[in-house]
Amino acid sequence: MLRKHKNLFFYSLDCLKKYKMRTIVVFVVFTFAVAMLSSVLFVKDGLEREAALSVVKAPDITVQYLKAGRIASIPLDYSEKVTHLDGVVEVRPRIWGYVGVGAYTFTVVGLDLSSDRLPTGLESEMDEGRFLSAYDAGSGRVVVGPLLAGMLQLHVNDTVVFLSESAKAHTFAVVGIFSGESSIYTADLIVMSIQDARNFFEIPQEYVTDLMVYVDPEAPIDNVAAKIVTLPNTRVLTQDLLIRGFKTAYAARGGIFTTIWTILLAAVTLIAFSQAIIVGVQSRFEVGLLKTFGFTTLDIIEIRLIESLILGVFTASLGMIIGVVYSAFFNAPGLSQILLGWAFLPSEFKMPTHMSYISIFSIYTVTVIPLLFATIVPAWLNAITDPDLAMRRATA
User: Fold this and answer.
1) pLDDT attached to residue 329
2) Strand, helix or coil at 78?
3) Are 328 and 351 in contact (CB under 8 A)?
4) 360 burial level (CB within 10 Å; 0-12, 13-18, 19+)
């Protein structure tokens, strides 16, 4: 029995060579469609994974201040109010904003360096130099991400000048550069002390951008967040809310492309169905001859299904390889801007690519199964034809 199926397998390979036009048409269009679909899914998976890694570095709860429905600077006295709530271990102020460098925008974060709770993992993601310490408070020292370092060719002990919103030039000394292997959280990041950030953004002493709240591990974060939100004009963001927001954003953008390429795969399936019918007409004599030699209807259907299975698995695998190369090595031109929603991306930015098991399974599913269904009907119609009648029609 095993030998029989083995022989049918090799006969199916010969059929793929025999009907070259069908094989080439299905191979080319399926490979192209799968390559684009896999690029979208792998980049989306990469962005979601990086977002999850970035959120881990965030505080348990971020407290923002709303004024007329817009985010505004929060009074520092809110720090005392939040500190006295049950379940809160520590509250640290933070000042952050954006600075333009050429055509690009970078994120500036000012941290309270006296805190023992600096963002988790940042100290271990250094490519050059060191992270900031309490001695760097108000000293004009910064740690920059690999994007800015690559654009300006910065190294440790170099100086860099940023122009503030008030058109004032501020000079900073680079003491560290984040690793290029770190997450997108640090890619465009510029970290300085909160005193330097306050001076750069000209924020009054009694205000900060937001508050970083750290919660007792024994206390439910949602319960603490519910207490904080009772304070006037506050909005709270938990880690869970941030990660769900990132996933929703990337999934929505990726879903548009996934829908488009799924429609394309459906069109390709129709092409495969058409080609299978054409091959069915061409192979009537062959089918009649096979049945004369003792092949059953199921044997003929199995041959066609094996053909489709080989073609589907091969095109899906090759398409995924092309998709990974396009995303990881060529940085997904055209796709990255849409998924990220940024107007400009420096050439130094590398799109995160991740091949999740769910995406791989989905690609094989939407490739192989439709191709099998597109083959089985023509194969069945061809196989149930009387051998003598099939040979007569084929030679007529």
Assistant:
1) 81
2) helix
3) yes
4) middle
pTM given for the model: 0.70
74 closest CA partner among 178, 192, 204, 187: 204
Token code pair at residue 210: 């937001």
Phi, psi (rounded to 5 degrees) for 386? -60, 135
What is the tens place of the pLDDT at every residue in 4-20? Answer: 767 677 777 777 777 77
Kindly state the tokens that stand for 331.
Answer: 């940085």
> What pLDDT, in 10s, does the model give residues 25-68?
778 878 888 888 888 888 878 877 777 777 777 788 899 999 98
Alpha helices in the chain (DSSP H): 2-18, 20-56, 77-83, 146-152, 184-187, 194-201, 221-228, 239-282, 284-292, 297-324, 335-340, 357-383, 387-395
> Could you tell me how many residues make up the chain?
396
**Pair of tokens at residue 238:** 């938990």
Question: Exposed/middle/buried for 91, CB within 10 Å: 0-12, 13-18, 19+?
Answer: buried
Closest listed residue to residue 366, CA positions, set 223, 234, 263:
263
- Is-contact 359 43, C-beta < 8 A? no
